[in-house]
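Chain A, query sequence.
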Amino acid sequence: MSAPLNFRLEQYEGPLDLLLDLIRKQQIDIKDIPIATITSQYLEFMDKAREMDIDLSAEFVYMAATLIHIKSKMLLPQDPALQKEGDGDDPRQELVDRLLEHEKFKNAAEMLQQKRMIEENVWSHPQAKAFGADEDPGLAVSLFDLVKAFGEILERAQNRPVYEVEAADVTVSDMIRYLRDRFLEAGPDQPVFILRIFEQQRSRRAMIVLFLAVLEAVRMQAVVVAQKDLFGEIALQRHASFDSVFASDQPMAAIEKDYA
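Chain A, predicted structure.
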């Protein structure tokens, strides 16, 4: 019988958020979830929510049923024949994959929140234009605008056929190189329209990895996000340090280490 987990009852955007919070607070290896413990704590949260008249969506109930189903499958003895052939799939694997994908997106959102707070506390000089170039930099686009647009792309992707390609998993560094190649194809001073290259991806996973690559490229000051017209397409443009960023392999090596 697991010890009760002490946590304050708070609102979560969905059941995956709740599961991630439980895992983070206990420093559990996300790839080796103690399903009985987590299921017990998840159900405890739901019971406390009912006591406080907090309305939980159907997603929370569905996840509770999923956790109970996984727990029951893990309690059943495995077929020795399947174990011998190595076909005994871990019942937790699908949940682990969903949590890892959700965690990447959540981490990206948290990074955007930090950037927004920094931007809100930075003041520019009203006469700054007098000391800068005369060219029009376009409308200011926050990274939250990019997240919103990316969410719309994912929503549309759910209604189209998705073709998964049997190949090694694409990495963030691979997608940064892909992004660099699109700029080289477009030519000097030409933008790359980000939503167009999102729609060219063949899977939801590739879209998410590409989104993380865009955030990393912005962080490295290889590209900037711009919008020529109000409600126009969001584009990426080369930063002044574009060439110097890609001149060395060090940034890519650091990214590969961070996402290993």
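Confidence is low (pLDDT under 50) at residues 1-8, 128-138. The chain has two domains: 1-83+90-107, 137-258.
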